[in-house]
Amino acid sequence: QVQLVESGGGLVQAGGSLRLSCVFSGRTSSGYVRAWFRQAPGKEREFVAGWRDGTPIYGDSVKGRFIISKNNANNTVFLQMNSLKPEDTGVYYCAARDVWKSTYNFWGQGTQVTVSS
């Protein structure tokens, strides 16, 4: 069974940076596509960053500020978040899907990110 464990969330002032990590375990990670989503209070979950055909892709609200990367050696995906804004506040989730699927079917427990103004 696939397991995803996020870490790195916290409280930061606007303009600051945070780096989230997500460790993948339980299966061979090369058979899965991973991504980051977030959910703010009272809002729907939204896509933050992931890959399409091996190329990083980003949600419009984070383009130019966030960077997704991975370390295949230790099955970890990272989300470097720069120039944080109060509207970036929310629970950030790591997700994974089989490469042949279009929807994400494995989710981490989430890590809280709070950006103060």
Please supply descriptive tags for the structure shown above:
117 residues; mainly beta; seven-stranded mixed β-sheet; 56% strand
How is this structure best described in words?
With 117 residues, the protein is mainly beta. It has no helices and 11 strands. It has strands spanning 3-7, 10-13, 18-25, 32-39, 46-52, 55-58, 66-71, 76-81, 90-98, 106-107, 111-116. The strands form 2 sheets. Strands 2, 4, 5, 6, 9, 10 and 11 form a 7-stranded mixed beta sheet that branches. It is globular. The termini are far apart. The mean pLDDT is 95.
Q: In a few lines, what is going on in this structure?
A:
Helices cover 0% and strands 56% of the residues.
List the helices and strands and how they pair.
Layout: E1 3-7, E2 10-13, E3 18-25, E4 32-39, E5 46-52, E6 55-58, E7 66-71, E8 76-81, E9 90-98, E10 106-107, E11 111-116
Parallel strand pairs: 2-11
Antiparallel strand pairs: 1-3, 3-8, 4-5, 4-9, 5-6, 7-8, 9-10, 9-11
